[in-house]
Amino acid sequence: MILEIKTNDNEIKYLAERVFFKSIDLLGGLNKLAEYRTLTWLPSIARAAFVIVLREEYLKTEDEIAQFVGLTRNTIRQILRADPNAALYKIEHIDELTSEEKKQLKVHTAGGIAKLAYKLVKEGEDSQTVMEYCRMISQEAVSQCDAPWAYLVLKNIKGMHYPITDADELIERLKNIEIKGVKAQDIIKNIHYPIKNPAMLLKEIKEQLQMKGIE
């Protein structure tokens, strides 16, 4: 079946894509899907991501969602009633599944994974792949500007997982860096946590510098 999503609403599309990428993380990453030869799961995850976003963010009815994504009302209902814990259990015990089961992801399993992914995204835990890409883009952007401290910070936080909930790892990674003549660790201790992405970290550091009358 070919699914054609008809929407010009970028907010729906972008949030559904963030849920989709987080779902891939929960499934073990694209490498794991390829390893198990379960790339056929991806369309199910994509559909489930749209379904969950339309219900949770836009309070759409089952009929409205069915019309939007081009699935039956019964399939929409199965996705919305999916149990995230049951879906995770199935994924964690994937080695016990038959080869045929690994090739086919049932809609309720896709729905469960998408539900959990949506919850994590809303809590600030976007896909690590997305976060790392944001860090790389930010690093490239600040390298073109008069903000060498921002470039050094982004360079040294490569690979960190988000959200960053406390200062410990940041202090360790930035212990040899000074920002505008101030030890980075003295600034890091005073910023607000959790830090949800690289841009938020730079913003918090800049605000601390401004409070000190430096920036």
From TrEMBL:
It comes from the Bacteria. InterPro entries: CHP03879_regulat_dom_put. NCBIfam families: near_KaiC_dom (TIGR03879). This is Bacterio-opsin activator. It comes from Caminibacter pacificus.
